[in-house]
DNA sequence: AAACCGGGGTT
DNA sequence: AACCCAGGTTT
């Protein structure tokens, strides 16, 4: 394997460096397992600077396991609005409810128990066990794989599950007695601050002189990572529907399905366009009216183009055209009979803050409001 | 193993 | 414009 000297040097120097350079982050104020848990879930695929304000608001709104367990899901989703990967929020609350009911609100400190919770995978279980309870478990994230692949010159594809398993064994082996929490955080801190994906700051690195990749001039080439597939393009026509009469000043929004992309979030009504090219605005508005009529049973009256926008998810690219609409008279009279589809609602600007929207729709609504002056 | 699941910062 | 981020779940 690797020499004991190289491993021991790494762990010792890293801990010394961490003691001097660790950032003062909100979730490092104490070892409350619930707070550690919240922070680790928020930090999945999300940068520290993005998470900080969300973390503060979240623990203020849901200060305890009990508070989060008893909160309505819509409120939790709203608190997560803009962070992305919303299944994290839904799984987190589901898991917290289980901790509340099955473990009396105490976050488990056993690997098997904590790993069985929804949304808690190998990384998060290791992070909570080591940081909150100082248990000698590895917490291998993208930072850790980058650091280890460079220091030990590991040329395996880090996208492969087998590589992560190997990294976990190595990372666990590197933990000095009684320092799991600090050591795991030190490893991630080094990856975030020094051993960065591109242009690593090797000259300030505490373990540079023993870094195998540096020795070989390979630090920029590691880690090896198979290229991801580009997102597939989709064209969408969006209806910004303004109310009239009793609904004056309100917008018509709808809730997304229970499962799948952006599950249970609210959005502006829209359709996916099948063909490969955009049509004229006139044709687009006809298609929008007819398709919404067929699928939802409400009649739109599109009145004009508002804006173009786009949004990239991890695996889908949305190219969007937004049209101003109202409901035509037939729909208005039917709505008075209570025939608006159940997942649709009229809401005022003030009520907007109660509903969780994907960021792409937040942007559209803000742009419209600013255009109004 | 591959696909699904957001959104934004860095270079 | 490409790359990546304190990943997990489902197929």
Mean pLDDT: 95
Task: Report low-confidence residues grouped into runs of 5 or more.
Answer: none
**Dominant shape:** elongated
Structural class comes to alpha+beta
CATH class of the largest domain: Mainly Alpha
The share of residues in extended strands comes to 5-15%
How much helical structure, as a percent, in the residues? Answer: 40-55%
CATH architecture of the largest domain: Orthogonal Bundle
User: Can you identify the CATH superfamily of the largest domain?
Assistant: Hypothetical protein, domain 2
Write out the strand line-up for the largest beta sheet, numbering strands in chain order. Answer: 4-1-6-5
Total count of domains: 2
Give me the CATH fold name of the largest domain.
Endonuclease III, domain 1
Terminal Cα separation, in Å?
A: 66 Å
Secondary structure elements and pairings:
Elements: H1 4-21, H2 33-42, H3 48-61, H4 65-70, H5 73-80, H6 87-102, H7 111-115, H8 122-133, H9 142-151, H10 161-174, H11 180-193, H12 212-216, E1 232-241, E2 251-255, E3 266-267, E4 270-273, H13 281-296, E5 300-312, E6 316-327, H14 329-336, E7 344-347, H15 359-371
Parallel strand pairs: 1-6
Antiparallel strand pairs: 1-4, 2-3, 2-7, 5-6
This protein binds a DNA duplex (11 and 11 nucleotides) through helix 2, helix 3, helix 6, helix 8 and helix 9.
Organism: Paenibacillus eucommiae
Function: Adenine glycosylase active on G-A mispairs.
GO molecular function: hydrolase activity, acting on glycosyl bonds
Quick summary:
The protein is an alpha+beta fold. It folds into 2 domains: 4-216, Endonuclease III, domain 1 (Orthogonal Bundle); 232-371, Nucleoside Triphosphate Pyrophosphohydrolase (Alpha-Beta Complex), CATH 3.90.79.10.
């Amino acid at each position: 394997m690797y020499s004991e000297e190289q491993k021991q040097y790494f762990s010792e120097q890293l801990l010394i460096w961490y003691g001097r350079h660790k950032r003062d982050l909100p979730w490092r104020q104490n070892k409350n397992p619930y707070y550690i848990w919240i922070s680790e879930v928020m930090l999945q695929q999300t940068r520290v600077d993005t998470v900080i304000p969300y973390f503060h608001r979240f623990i203020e709104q849901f200060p305890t396991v009990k508070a989060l367990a008893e909160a309505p899901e819509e409120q939790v989703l709203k608190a997560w609005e803009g962070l992305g990967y919303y299944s994290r929020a839904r799984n987190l609350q589901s898991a917290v409810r289980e901790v509340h009911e099955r473990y009396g609100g105490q976050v488990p400190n056993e690997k098997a128990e904590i790993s069985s919770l929804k949304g808690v995978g190998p990384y998060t279980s290791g992070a909570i066990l080591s940081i909150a309870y100082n248990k000698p478990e590895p917490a291998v994230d993208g930072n850790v794989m980058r650091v280890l692949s460079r220091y030990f010159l590991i040329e395996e594809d880090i996208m492969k599950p087998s590589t992560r398993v190997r990294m976990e064994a190595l990372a666990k082996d590197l933990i000095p007695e009684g320092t799991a929490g600090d050591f795991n955080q030190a490893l991630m801190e080094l990856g975030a601050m020094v051993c960065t994906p591109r242009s690593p700051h090797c000259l300030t690195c505490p373990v540079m002189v023993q870094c195998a990749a540096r020795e070989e001039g390979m630090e920029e080439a590691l880690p090896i990572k198979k290229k991801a597939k580009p997102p597939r393009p989709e064209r969408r026509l969006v209806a910004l529907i303004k109310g009239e009469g009793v609904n004056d000043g309100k917008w018509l929004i709808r809730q997304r399905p229970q499962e799948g992309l952006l599950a249970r979030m609210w959005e502006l009504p829209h359709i996916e366009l099948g063909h490969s090219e955009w049509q004229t605005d006139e044709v687009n508005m006809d298609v929008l009216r007819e398709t919404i009529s067929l699928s939802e049973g409400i009649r739109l009256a599109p009145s004009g183009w508002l804006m173009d926008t786009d949004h990239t998810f991890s695996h889908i690219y949305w190219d969007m055209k937004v049209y101003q609409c109202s409901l035509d008279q037939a729909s208005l009279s039917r709505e008075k009979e209570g025939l608006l589809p159940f997942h649709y609602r009229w809401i005022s600007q003030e009520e907007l803050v109660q509903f969780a929207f994907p960021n792409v729709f937040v942007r559209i609504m803000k742009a419209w409001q600013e255009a109004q002056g």
